[in-house]
Amino acid sequence: MESMTFVLFGATGDLAKRKIYPALYNLYLDKKMPSTFSIIGVGRRDWSDEEFQASIEKSVRTFSRRSQVDAQQMDEFVAAFRYCAVDVTDPQAFFPLLETVKQREAALQIPENRMFYLSVAPEFFDVITSNIKTSGLGTTKGWKRLIIEKPFGNDLKSAQQLNEKLSTAFEEEEIYRIDHYLGKPMVQNLEALEFANPVFQALWNNQYIANVQITAGETVGVEERAGYYDHVGAIRDMVQNHMLQMLMMTAMHLPKRITANDIRAQKRQVMEAVRPLQKEEISQQVVRGQYGAGEILDKHVVGYRAEPGVQPYSMTDTFVAARVWIDDPFWKGVPFYIRTGKRMKEKSTRIVIEFKNPLEQLYQHQQEKPAPNLLIISVNPDEGIALQVNSKNPSNSGKIEPVTVDFSAGTKDVPEAYELLLFDALRGDSTYFAHWKEVELSWMWVEPILEAFRENLVPLHTYPAGSYGPDASEELLLADGFQWWLDKAPEREPIPSHS
Ligand SMILES: NC(=O)C1=CN([C@@H]2O[C@H](COP(=O)(O)OP(=O)(O)OC[C@H]3O[C@@H](n4cnc5c(N)ncnc54)[C@H](OP(=O)(O)O)[C@@H]3O)[C@@H](O)[C@H]2O)C=CC1
Ligand SMILES: O=C1O[C@H](COP(=O)(O)O)[C@@H](O)[C@H](O)[C@H]1O
What we know:
Elements: E1 4-9, H1 14-29, E2 37-43, H2 49-63, H3 71-78, E3 81-85, H4 94-108, E4 114-118, H5 125-135, E5 144-148, H6 156-166, E6 175-177, H7 185-195, H8 198-203, E7 209-217, H9 226-251, H10 260-273, H11 282-285, E8 286-292, E9 294-296, E10 299-301, E11 319-325, E12 335-341, E13 348-355, E14 374-380, E15 384-393, E16 399-406, H12 417-426, H13 436-454, E17 460-464, H14 471-478
Parallel strand pairs: 1-2, 1-4, 2-3, 4-5, 5-6, 7-12, 8-17
Antiparallel strand pairs: 7-13, 8-11, 9-10, 11-12, 13-14, 14-15, 15-16
The structure holds NADPH dihydro-nicotinamide-adenine-dinucleotide phosphate (NDP) and the ligand O=C1O[C@H](COP(=O)(O)O)[C@@H](O)[C@H](O)[C@H]1O.
């Protein structure tokens, strides 16, 4: 891996502390950083290099997945960091920053390979890239790359405008748009599951699959982020990016070659085939919810509107479920259901593939029909793959019952999303970053939903905190003869049969 300079805008912020420094440290320990590197942190506050280095050590000790910290390795790691106080809205302030970068490049005798990471509020994305360009910071004899955090725009138009601005300073191949769900090991593993296993490869289509269910449930509420969340809701915060990225990763088909460009082209094809929604029919395809008061892990929690910083009559969605159709030859007729919400019963991100069940008729003499085969991909917090199959139970008069063959990895010490993503960006692999076309197509699909929510064409259901969302989310699947699998709900309606 080539030596480089990493310029981190937002170096004193929350994301840097909780995710970026621990990820860089773990890469360093695993010898996945270049042999020589320089990291320049940028923030507004007036810190010395020593104060900055002390804050990095503290954040690694607090947030790293590795609890043991070797003092000597830590000293060597933090020695690579320097701090530069810059108000990013001031173009003049970029010249001293350029000087610092150059001095370090000269002192370490490293080439002008520069990675810029924008870990700042989105209102600064534009001005920073423009100042990188005009100051000469982005004029290098080596490579330059830009890592950019979410959110990428607030709607289609603002995303397009942002992209246009970025592309005046960086080429598309130089831009790495972070979607941390693409850094989750099991989401990355979808590619191997589908492409490296002929068994699944053969089944991955509408001949064998009845429906696909993608859930990202959280037990946390809005926490201290009302200022941001009350303007975006689950539809922008989770659906436009993470949920649609998981859908693309699940539905994509084997490319001719396994390269970043080919994989991203496959994902784009999926998104291009997603059936656009008409505003008038959105209430039939999309469920909107907001949490009320309830119990989470035996603790009473307040409803969304009573959370600090939330508008008293807020109509913000904290839950969204949707039925998505992909009109291509592989998936025609297979509903993909997506569902995400805050203050749900459990923290669980999973993808469940329900296979068709043509043998149902054979077992008509049994009171209960055999359950469908399910492929369960657990993304978070546990990671693993499980297959639900039917088997005779000798202790129950040979009755056919579902059993689960479990290949779960549990919660073993696996690299975090930010480690995997930063490592990829450092070596110039953009496979697991969102391409502009994916982002644009996602916004295009979401746009009529935003309008329908704004115009109140979709009812806002209140659901109790600690539940699986509003009943309307269950009804969305029941209408097609399906149910959400694996919910720990106490009672369920009998499963209607479907062919
Ligand atoms: N925190 C998280 O868990 C997540 C964050 N993100 C995204 O990451 C980005 C950063 O978020 P987060 O770390 O939480 O934000 P914070 O508010 O914690 O940090 C903001 C950073 O920006 C710096 N900053 C603000 N204004 C200026 C300015 N005019 N000039 C220079 N620096 C400035 C601050 O420096 P100083 O304090 O010194 O003024 C600080 O380092 C956002 O885009 C967010 O959406 C994405 C996913 C999760
Ligand atoms: O991007 C976001 O993701 C988190 C959920 O991430 P996870 O890795 O814990 O599943 C979500 O809480 C947050 O609102 C959103 O901005």
